[in-house]
Structures are given as C-alpha cells and as structure tokens.
Design brief:
389 residues; Aspartate Aminotransferase, domain 1; 2 domains; binds pyridoxal-5'-phosphate
C-alpha cells in the first residue's frame, strides 16, 4: 500500500451514510435496534438476515471504525473492543484452550504480561516469555501445543525492535498464529500483516485516537480469526462504546500526519538528548546507535514517537528532570498530541521486583518521553531545565 492509498483510505474507508446523507460519519448512540416485524426480529436473531440487533453485537458507527482500521492494516476483517486489554483477552479466549501454550516476547506491556502470566495461567494456558530480539529463543521455546505467538515491537520503554518476518516464520513452522501489538507504530508506520504476522491487536486508546480522549481496542486479521473473536465478544461483552468508536474513527483520519510529525520531533529530540551532558544513553530506533536500527528502518517507516533515555545519578536525578518540567505532562499515558514523561521504574514497572527490573534493563535513571505535537524547541527547553541543574 503506498502513502496516497493509505491517506485516502484513512479518510474514506468505512463511511456509510444514513438516509440523511450526513457528510461527517454519524454517531449512532443507541443500545438496540428496532425491527419492522416479528418475522424480521426472528430472522435477525437467527442470522438469516444481516442487520443490527443490539450494540453488544454490532453498531453502525463501530462497523465503520472497524472497516477503516481493517483497510489501514491491510486486514481482511477487524473487530473493535472496549480497550486494548480486552482486545488481547478476546483474542486469547477465541484462539486458545486449556493445555495450550503461548510464546510471548519479554518486555510486553505490563498488563499484557499479567494477563498471560497471571490470569490465563489459572485456566491451564501456559506462557513462555522469551528475550524479545532472540529469534533462536523463540524457536527453542516452541512446544507441540504452542498456538499463539504474541509480540510487541518496538517494546516499551526500551524500544527494542523485533524482526516480525523472522518470528512469523517460527510461528508458521509450529502452526501457531503470530499476533503483533501494533500500538506504538500504528499502521501509519508499520504493517505487521504485510510482514507475515497473522493478527494485529491495538490499544486504540493511544495513537489511533491520538488525543487522549477515549479507551478502545481492536483485533484485525483474517476473517476466520476475527469471526471467532467476535463470537467471544458478543457473548462476553467487552464491546466498544459507539461514542468511543466514533472518536477513534475520526482520529484515524489524521493518524499518518500526526505519526509523521510526532516521529520527526522524536528523532530531533533523540539526537538532541544524545548530545546532552548527564545523559548516559538514548533509546530510539531512529538513531544509528540503536542496536536494531537497520531492522527498524526496514520494518518501520520511521522510529516512532517514543524516546527513552537514561540519566546519570539514578532515581534522584531522573525525578529532578521530571519535576523541573513545566509543560510536559507527568503521566504514564502515551499516544497523545501532548508530550508526556514517565519514570518507568517507579510507575509502569514499579510493581515488579528490583531484580526483574534490572534484568529487563529498566534502570532507576531511565525516563520515557512520548513526544507530542508541541514545538520541538519547547519540549527541549522543558527538559533542559532539569538536565542542566
Ligand atoms: C496501553 C497499551 C495496551 C492496553 O491498552 P488499553 O487500551 O489501556 O487497555 C496494550 N498494549 C500496549 C503496547 C499499550 O501501550
């Protein structure tokens, strides 16, 4: 898919006009739909007639968002969910059963690790976490019952880049599905399905909305898989609100230009940080110094909008940088037009043991910036205050 095609789909895919011929996509705030007759109600319930029944199943605004995101990911089908976590849960519930095995990359989003390692494990689904960038480790950890391979690239907060095509090959050799959490890059910068992944999952809460307004999630991939996820969803109920779907649908229209602008600023910030005294190391896939820079440039259109860096002086100095900011938001969220800063060791990764944190490379001096749309000069000035002190 070229850029022009992407841009057009982002604005035009998934538009369905009602009898009022509205230009902007309509928001259908309704929990249920009425039928013309008892016979039609029966036919809709039996699935003999297509059409909406109840918003736990479908809603036209949600359908439009699903179609638009499917088009952008190059997926046959897509189903939206209430949040990113419910997308991952729904995928797991649809594709796994007791006795099955999951292969997951280390450094996954914290709640995803907890879902696989701490919740699904109670139901007889075992997960092995392998070092994210070690392809041989994935191959070695395969078991006869490995059904799902789950990765996130670039990882958070250290921006490790996983070779999607290589992991897809390993998964395929075992007859397992490869699911990629594409939250950080979005289809504007990385399309996992084109690289051989089977399924993409999203926290639409982040860049797809892009302005920090709503929670949402999605699973995109082959119709056969998405249909199974939908069956779980319509029964179990982590369905997206039509309002949230509408916000995300409109967010997709500006996704590429936001991602490109925020990534360009992130690269500028990463280069600037590399030159600052007291900054020990900068983690950003767009930097030549990044260990998987070449892979990142093959697999992604740019480095993305997340930059992490480690300062000398551990927690005290890192907190000093955070507390000296006046503009940047101190929050663990990311994917917003407003730049955010977080200290992973005491927030997102605060509940894991110090040893596990050290093993994962989350040092006390590490800070993560999710670069927004403010002027780069203002972001730099806000950080310079703490770094210079
Ligand atoms: C935020 C996030 C999630 C979870 O999404 P929610 O919408 O908060 O449920 C999953 N994966 C990644 C990479 C995330 O950043």
């Amino acid at each position: 898919m070229d850029e022009q095609e992407f841009d057009t789909l982002a604005v035009r895919a998934g538009t369905a006009r009602s009898q009022f011929n509205e230009h902007s996509e309509a928001l259908y705030l309704t929990s249920s739909f009425v039928f013309d007759s008892a016979a039609q109600a029966a036919a809709r319930f039996a699935g003999a007639e297509t059409g909406n029944v109840y918003a736990r199943f479908t809603n036209p605004t949600v359908t439009a968002m699903q179609e638009r995101l499917a088009a952008l990911e190059g997926a046959e089908s897509c189903v939206a969910t209430a949040s990113g976590m419910s997308a991952i849960l729904s995928l797991a519930m649809a594709t796994l059963q007791a006795g099955d095995h999951v292969l997951a990359s280390s450094g996954l989003f914290g709640a995803t690790q907890q879902l696989f390692g701490g919740i699904l494990s109670k139901f007889g689904i075992e997960t092995t976490f392998v070092p994210a960038t070690d392809i041989d480790a994935y191959r070695a950890a395969l078991r006869p019952r490995t059904r799902l391979c789950f990765i996130e690239t670039p990882s958070n907060p250290l921006t490790e880049v996983i070779d999607i095509a290589a992991v897809a090959e390993v998964a395929r050799s075992a007859g397992a599905l490869l699911a990629v959490d594409n939250c950080f890059c979005t289809p504007a910068l990385q399309r996992p399905l084109e690289l051989g992944a089977d399924v993409v999952v999203h926290s639409a809460t982040k860049y797809l909305d892009g302005q920090g307004r709503v929670l949402g999630g999605a699973v995109a991939g082959p119709k056969a898989v998405v249909d199974e996820v939908f069956k779980f969803l319509r029964t179990a109920g982590p369905s997206i609100s039509p309002f949230n779907a509408w916000v995300i649908l409109k967010g997709l229209e500006t996704l590429r230009i936001r991602m490109e602008a925020q990534s360009a600023s992130a690269l500028g910030l990463a280069r600037w940080l590399e030159a600052q005294p007291g900054v020990r190391r900068v983690f950003y896939p767009g930097l030549e110094s990044h260990p998987q820079h070449a892979l990142a440039m093959r697999q992604q259109k740019s480095g993305g909008a997340i930059v992490s860096f480690e300062v000398d002086g551990g927690r005290e100095r890192a907190w000093q940088v955070v507390d000296a900011t006046r503009m940047i938001s101190i929050t663990a969220n990311l994917g917003d037009t407003k730049t955010t800063i977080t200290h992973p060791a005491t927030t997102t990764h605060g509940r894991i043991s110090a040893e596990a944190r050290a093993a994962a490379g989350i040092e006390e001096g590490l800070l993560r910036i999710a670069v927004g749309l403010e002027a780069l000069e203002d972001i730099q000035a806000d950080l310079a205050r703490g770094l210079g002190g």
